[in-house]
Fold:
Amino acid sequence: MSDAASEAVEGISPSIDYVEFQARPEFRELKRRLRRFVFPLAAAFLAWFLLFVVLGAFAHDFMARPLLGMNVGIWFGLSQFVTTFAITTAYVMYTNRRIDPIAESLRAELETMVPRAEGGTS
Structure:
């Protein structure tokens, strides 16, 4: 008797071949969409943050200039918070629209591949 059949006989559901599942076009598309959004946005934010740090370290006169009642350095620092919230909002909107539908369908498919044991809870 094969291992999968003996596991099924003993009441243990057979395992899923996750490597094979990850090779599927739907899963690869999910990863591609996520990476195309996350990596460029992370790189842009990192560059923006490093600009703030470099200007703070080497452009003291510029960062100390008054602008609308505060200095430029304070405005740059506050804009980091605004940028963080904007990126978070954009990420949530993007994933709700482009990532979650694919992820939910893949998850549902995985859940049907291995039926839950009788009396089991999630």
In short: The two ends are 30 Å apart (CA to CA). The CA atoms of residues 21 and 27 lie 7 Å apart. The mean pLDDT is 84. Residues 24-113 form one domain.
